[in-house]
Amino acid sequence: AKIKEVEFVKSSNKPKDCPKDERPEFAMLGRSNVGKSSLIISLVKKKEVVLTSKKPGKTQLINHFLVNKSWYIVDLPGYGFANASEAARMDWSSFTKGYFLNRDTLVSIPITFVFTKCDKMEGRQKGPTSHELIRENYKHQPPWIMTSSVSGLGRDELLLHMSQLQNY
Ligand code: GTP
Ligand code: MG
């Protein structure tokens, strides 16, 4: 699960414009501002090519990054953020939906829950810690991984997981 090379390929605003390719790809799907773009940076260690922001709604296109010339990681706009016009939001939701429905090379099943910003969950209160609660509540769910783009928590685990999924 070693990252040797990362190349920004292109930004697209519809599935039709995405790279025509057979290589498998992984997409980060989640609410706006949860840290999808930051997580991609932490995985590929290439700050220059991925845009992040304190404000929700930074990623506005389907962004393809080719890793080790063998698989893609895709940064998508988040859903549910309030900072854009209704029209812009409709547009994003329609093309990300189109992306999910039409992108044949997407490694979409199985889905993995990736918890972000886990550096922020410190056990202030008595009783079970947030880590323990997640462990308990997601016992029977699809695979899940706790990550932090700040501390690097979960990075190796997520990369290993993605490399295993490609052999399906
Ligand atoms: P959209 O592109 O709007 O969908 O957002 P996004 O999910 O790509 O979030 P982004 O990576 O731009 O990060 C949003 C904010 O959260 C930024 O201010 C990041 O610095 C911060 N952030 C991201 N990951 C972490 C993390 O692991 N820990 C902490 N503490 N902050 C983080
Ligand atoms: Mg983003």
UniProtKB/TrEMBL annotation:
One of its GO terms (molecular function) is GTP binding. Keywords: GTP-binding, Magnesium, Metal-binding, Nucleotide-binding. It comes from the Eukaryota. Residues 22-168 form the EngB-type G domain. Its cofactor is Mg(2+). Belongs to the TRAFAC class TrmE-Era-EngA-EngB-Septin-like GTPase superfamily. EngB GTPase family. This is EngB-type G domain-containing protein. It comes from Anisodus tanguticus.
